[in-house]
Amino acid sequence: MHPDFERANISVVVATYNGEPFLRKQLDSILSQSLPPKEIIVVDDCSSDGTINILNEYASSNASFRIILNENNIGYIRNFEKGMMLATGDLIALSDQDDIWMPEKLETLYQNIGAHLIIYSNSELIDENGASLHQKMSDIKNQIGYYNCLMYTIGAWAPGHTFLFKKELVERCIPFPSLVTHDFWLGFVATCYSPIKYLPETLVLYRQHTFNAIGANTHAKKIHQVKPTKAELQQKSRERMQLLYEKCPVALIEQKQVLKTISDSYQSYSLKNNLTRMLVFLKYRHLILAYKKKSSFMKILFCVKMFFKIDY
After folding, report:
1. SS3 content of the chain, % helix, strand, coil (to 5)
2. Full-model pTM
3. Is residue 297 part of a domain?
4. Given phi > 0 = left and psi -120 to 50 = alpha, else beta, which region is 130?
5. Of 44, 45, 48, 151, whose CA is between 20 and 30 Å from 75?
6. Residue 311 has pLDDT above 90, yes or no
7. For the segment 185-209, what is each residue's pLDDT rounded down to a tens digit?
8. Cβ distance 161 to 309 under 8 Å?
């Protein structure tokens, strides 16, 4: 083992829920890492299939496994939060139950994280049978280094399944809000203190199937999800913008003021609010829309549309 690896103290946190069809391949890929994690924490959210049997099988032959069984279903955000809080490593990598990691994933991220709170990589999409969909996450939206929390204003494209991050970030994030995904929250909070580093290497095979909790196609309607109403989307947008404003540190004077201005403008569709919202988006479009694959003209058009809407 490389001498530097002796100092690596990485916890892998796996969240499971009825993951029997794909779980073995993911666990095998974690166990095959060129830089092995010091512990693998699996939090199961009341699975009713063969997931727990599989976990017990792996735990019986791998001392690094810790299995936690929830008494009640708490959802994937709380499930990951629970695992992160139980992790003892200096660094944490999150694992979905249905992906496949490249053997060098942890080693590559560990060697490049440096002083950053988060580092993440590219990933390739595969179907439920493991066949390549010939598309990477970077083909869908821009994968970039995030250096300003305003880059998270309306979204981002740094997925948690490729993260390696420092445990100290978890302390800054808890409690995790239910309004946004756990990886969005980790990313936003991280950019309040340190730039997020991006590596273009493909280090994860990201499986797409009907029961993805999120998936690469954020507009796809999952069979287990009910489409929210426009009023519900608008209210969620208001609450989410207020959340970002409140979490942004006072030391980030400009960013906090921008988030406050946008949040205030979300409260109604008055002419003043609509104009203010559009002008702020136009001024900061190079940050707010950095992750979107849009031309300069389309970014301007997007900002103009913000005169009429607050959900996106």
Report:
1. 40, 20, 40
2. 0.94
3. yes
4. left
5. 151
6. no
7. 999 999 999 999 999 999 999 999 7
8. no
The CB density around residue 223, as the number of other CB atoms within 10 Å, is: 6
| CATH of residue 28 | 3.90.550.10
Q: Which domain holds residue 9?
A: 3-207
95 Cβ contact partners less than 8 Å away, ≥ 6 residues apart: 12, 13, 14, 15, 26, 30, 101, 161
Domain count for the chain: 2
Are 52 and 77 in contact by the 8 Å Cβ rule? The answer is no
Residue 93, CB half-sphere, CA atoms under 13 Å: how many?
31
Q: What is the mean pLDDT of residues 58-86?
A: 97
On the question of a cis peptide bond just before residue 228, with omega within 30 degrees of 0, the verdict is no
pLDDT band, residue 219 (cuts 50/70/90): very low
C-beta of residue 76 within 8 angstroms of C-beta of residue 118:
no
Helices (H), 38-193: 51-61, 75-86, 105-112, 137-140, 167-173, 182-191
**Is 93 found in the same domain as 25?**
yes
Contacts with 130 (C-beta within 8 Å, 6 or more apart), sequence order: 25, 100, 205, 207
**Most distant CA pair in the chain, distance:** 65
Residue 93 lies in a domain: yes
**pLDDT tens sequence across 122-170:** 999 999 999 999 999 999 999 999 999 999 999 999 999 999 999 999 9
In this structure, is residue 130 part of a structural domain? yes
